[in-house]
Each structure stands twice: as structure tokens, then as C-alpha cells.
């Protein structure tokens, strides 16, 4: 009920009494703060509109059954904050400075499209998150962590985590991992932004990116004032001639499992890429986003291990544990370390210490290796299920790329084209897919392509749902 602006008498007092009654029933030691909070919220929400005259402190105190001093103190506090205004002998009024706003907390997190079958790539199976082992590690860390470790951390990260990661990355990915050059970051996105700022500070205004490649790179580098130059691929990796002709001195690569084409850079192309970096005194930015997941052989080692002075290496737990942890690492050449660390310091003063200590224990005790093996088994089974389902329901479809990661490239027979018509039909059937063209920079001939090439994610879907989803897609494509 809103108090009348024309009648400041008992009707107003009764309405105010109704609004503030719960606060008046609060325990004596918190009653004053509760009364102020309730009155403040009534003004913010618009239930007490600007220009509304409030009851006198004596009347309101009598209605609420509290002391007059409590009401007087509330009026004085909210007047000082600007919610109320008062004048000698003129009473107390709701001020005009406050604008009522509907309280809301929107969720802007990227979510699954709610489709009957979701093949959008990039999402791991979050049900595989090791809750029991994580909880046990958390309890142990909370029991053992020294108090001083809860202070502001080294912006590079806790020494214990950097040491554990150095061992892990050297053992699993073949990197040259000096703990002094590892920086703990909030995922590959922050690592990319840090590198962008460091490039900009050195006068670099353009960075080469794979085309096709991750759509996120453009926005992340743009935030640091660096533009992206799309560079085409060939069967071995990023094409060297366009790279040399571009004039860039920095290039972003995914050499272990290129996103999205799924190729692994050849040994020759890896050597040529490093020769280029040395010749221009440049740097290769290696995104090892899913390098742990290879299903037909041991994973190819990281490019950084061949030349730590010209490669910055980054990875995260987003595909192995959960992207919501916002936990990753950046290993930089020695000549870049100081400026990257200083930029990390000014950006956020370092990654949360408790999360770092927890992950350090998780790595040191072998829990992370066990989690990687668990994911490896599950994702290999799901990739096999997707390849089999495509062969059954889309005869003649070609699956390209190495047996690795969390997605495949599927090229469908020409009879299913053109691409825009195919995408419209499967979307209408409730099947979510991503075309390969969404990962490429605009080029003539892309629109209305006759050939249907899809980037299909499978890690977050059970084998049974994969088979059902491909069946639905085939029915929609031929319907």
C-alpha cells in the first residue's frame, strides 16, 4: 500500500506501519538497522514514491511500538544518504534523487540451446567433474593451509601450484616448464588478453590467427587494441607464404589439434613456423586447449618444447574439469615474463589463493591424472559413437581430423546441401549444430555454400543420445 501524497495524516502512518512492521519485530540489538534497511528498500522499490510525506517520528514510533529515538535516528540516517529530505517545521519527505528500479539478477552465462539434440562444440561433460575427490582436497587444504597463504598471492600464482604444473606439463606435454615463468590465469581467455596487452605495449598492433579458427580471438585481442589478421591453413598447418607476406610478428596457433579443422601440424610445419618466428624476432602463441586428449596414439608434444624463447604456451582445466573453475596457466618466454606478471598484477592482483592451493594438491596427489584418464575413456567412446552414427544415417559422410579432442568435422554428401537450407531444417527439428563456416572469416563464396561441413561436439553427450541426435538430424535433413 502506498501512502497518500495528499493526506499525511493517520492513513499515511498506517501504510508506513504496514511496510515497516517486520523491522519493528527484529531483535532489540538489530532493530535500528532493520528499520533503516526496510525504509530504504521501501523508497528504492517505489512503494514510498518521491514527494511522499512520512509520519512524524512520534506518530510512527507509536504505530510501530518502538522508541521515538529509533525512528528519529532512521530519519536522520536516510536524510544524510539522500533518500529523505526534511526542513525545520516542514516534516520529512521522500527525496526526489532516488529512482525506483526493479531488482533483478540476470544470468548471462552461455547455456545449452535447449535443443532436442545439442552438437555445439566446446563443452565437456560436466557430470564427470570429480566432486568427491575435489571435496576431499578442499577439506585437506582448508585444514592445512597456513594463514598467510590467504593474503594477496604472488601475481604469478602460488609457488606450490607453479611447481606442480611445471612437472605436469613437462611430463604430459613435453614443455620446457620453469615455475618462474608460469603465470596462473583465469583460463585461456585471460592468457590471451594478457598477451594482447603485452604485444600492444611493444608496439605490435596486429596478430595473425588461423582461418578457420576460434571466433573468440578477434574480440579478445581487440580489447587490448590489437587487430587480428586471418591466415589460411593447408594440410600441414598454417600456410607459411601468407604468414610471411602478412608482415605480422605474432601468430596464434593450435598445433596439437587445430581448432576447428582437427588436423595436427606436421613436424615440417612446426619447424618452419619456429624458423619464421626466429627470422622476424617474433612469437608464436600456442593454445593447447585439448592437447591431453588423443585417442589413437600418444598426444603430439607441445610446440613450446622446441623453442621456449619464441613460444608462449597456454592451457586450462576447462576441458578436463570444468570451465566454471576459471583456472588456467600461461608459460611465457623469459624476455616476456616481467611485463606479463606486472600486467597480471594490475589486472586482478592474482588468482584466488584457495583455488590454487586446492588444484596444486589435486595435481600433486595424482587426482588430475586420474581425471584425465577418466575423460579420455569417455570421450573416445563418444567420438566412436558419433562416427558410427554418421556412417549409418549419412552414408558417404566424411569425418576428417585426427582422433582427438572434443569435436569432429563432418562433411556431408552434396545431396544434403545447400548449407543454409540444411541448417534451417535441422534447427526446426530441434537439433543444434555449428557449421564450419561460422569459424571462418568472411570470404567470397561462403554464403549459400553447396557443401555442408559441420563442427560437431560430442564430449557432453552420452553415446545413446549421440545416436538418437544424429538420427533426428538425418530425418530433418531428408524431410
From TrEMBL:
Top-level division of the source organism's lineage: Bacteria
The keyword DNA-binding is annotated on this UniProt entry: yes
CDD domains named in the record: AAT_like (cd00609), WHTH_GntR (cd07377)
Keywords from the named record: Aminotransferase, DNA-binding, Pyridoxal phosphate, Transcription, Transcription regulation, Transferase
Residue ranges of domain HTH gntR-type in the record: 29-97
Xref: InterPro entries: Aminotransferase_I/II_large (IPR004839), HTH_trans_reg/aminotransferase (IPR051446), PyrdxlP-dep_Trfase (IPR015424), PyrdxlP-dep_Trfase_major (IPR015421), Tscrpt_reg_HTH_GntR (IPR000524), WH-like_DNA-bd_sf (IPR036388), WH_DNA-bd_sf (IPR036390)
Protein name: PLP-dependent aminotransferase family protein
PANTHER family attached to this UniProt entry: HTH-TYPE TRANSCRIPTIONAL REGULATORY PROTEIN GABR
Family classification: In the C-terminal section; belongs to the class-I pyridoxal-phosphate-dependent aminotransferase family.
Entry annotated with the keyword Kinase: no
Provenance organism: Streptomyces olindensis
GO MF terms, alphabetically ordered: transaminase activity
Amino acid at each position: 500500500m502506498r501512502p497518500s501524497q495528499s493526506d499525511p495524516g493517520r492513513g499515511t502512518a498506517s501504510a508506513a506501519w504496514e511496510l515497516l512492521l517486520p523491522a519493528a519485530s527484529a531483535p532489540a540489538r538489530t532493530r535500528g538497522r532493520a528499520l533503516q534497511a526496510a525504509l530504504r528498500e521501501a523508497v528504492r522499490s517505489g512503494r514510498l514514491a518521491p514527494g511522499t510525506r512520512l509520519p512524524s517520528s512520534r506518530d510512527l514510533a507509536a504505530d510501530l511500538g518502538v522508541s521515538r529515538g529509533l525512528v528519529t535516528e532512521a530519519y536522520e540516517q536516510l536524510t544524510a544518504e539522500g533518500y529523505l529530505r526534511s526542513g525545520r517545521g516542514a516534516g520529512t519527505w521522500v527525496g526526489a534523487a532516488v529512482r525506483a528500479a526493479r531488482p533483478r539478477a540476470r544470468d548471462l552465462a552461455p547455456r545449452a540451446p535447449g535443443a532436442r539434440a545439442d552438437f555445439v562444440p566446446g563443452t565437456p561433460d560436466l557430470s564427470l567433474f570429480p566432486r568427491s575427490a575435489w571435496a576431499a582436497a578442499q577439506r585437506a587444504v582448508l585444514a592445512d593451509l597456513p594463514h598467510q597463504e590467504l593474503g594477496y598471492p604472488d601475481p604469478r600464482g602460488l609457488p606450490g601450484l607453479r611447481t606442480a604444473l611445471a612437472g605436469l606439463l613437462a611430463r604430459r606435454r613435453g614443455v620446457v616448464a620453469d615455475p618462474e615463468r608460469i603465470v596462473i590465469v583465469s583460463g585461456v581467455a585471460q592468457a590471451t588478453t594478457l598477451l594482447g596487452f603485452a604485444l600492444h605495449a611493444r608496439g605490435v598492433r596486429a596478430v595473425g590467427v588461423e582461418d578457420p579458427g576460434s571466433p573468440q580471438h578477434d574480440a579478445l585481442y581487440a580489447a587490448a587494441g590489437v587487430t587480428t589478421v586471418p591466415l589460411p591453413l593447408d594440410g600441414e598447418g598454417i600456410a607459411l607464404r601468407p604468414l610471411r607476406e602478412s608482415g605480422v610478428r605474432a601468430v596464434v596457433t593450435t598445433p596439437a589439434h587445430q581448432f576447428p579443422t582437427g588436423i595436427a601440424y606436421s613436424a615440417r610445419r612446426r619447424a618452419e613456423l619456429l624458423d619464421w618466428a626466429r627470422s622476424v624476432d617474433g612469437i608464436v602463441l600456442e593454445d593447447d586447449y585439448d592437447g591431453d586428449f588423443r585417442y589413437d596414439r600418444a598426444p603430439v608434444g607441445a610446440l613450446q618444447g622446441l623453442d621456449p624463447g619464441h613460444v608462449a604456451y597456454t592451457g586450462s582445466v576447462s576441458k578436463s574439469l570444468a570451465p566454471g573453475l576459471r583456472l588456467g596457466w600461461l608459460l611465457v618466454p623469459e624476455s616476456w615474463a616481467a611485463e606479463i606478471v606486472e600486467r597480471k598484477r594490475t589486472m586482478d592482483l592474482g588468482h584466488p589463493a584457495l583455488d590454487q592451493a586446492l588444484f596444486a594438491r589435486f595435481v600433486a596427489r595424482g587426482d588430475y591424472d586420474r581425471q584425465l584418464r577418466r575423460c579420455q575413456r569417455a570421450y573416445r567412446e563418444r567420438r566412436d559413437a558419433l562416427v558410427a552414427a554418421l556412417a549409418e544415417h549419412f552414408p558417404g559422410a566424411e569425418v576428417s581430423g585426427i582422433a582427438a579432442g572434443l569435436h569432429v568435422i563432418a562433411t556431408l554428401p552434396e545431396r544434403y546441401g545447400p548449407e543454409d537450407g540444411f541448417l534451417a531444417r535441422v534447427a526446426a527439428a530441434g537439433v543444434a549444430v555449428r557449421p564450419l563456416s561460422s569459424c571462418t572469416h568472411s570470404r567470397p563464396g561462403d554464403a549459400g555454400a553447396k557443401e555442408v561441413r559441420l563442427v560437431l561436439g560430442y564430449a557432453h553427450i552420452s553415446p545413446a543420445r549421440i545416436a538418437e541426435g544424429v538420427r533426428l538430424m538425418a530425418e530433418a535433413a531428408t524431410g
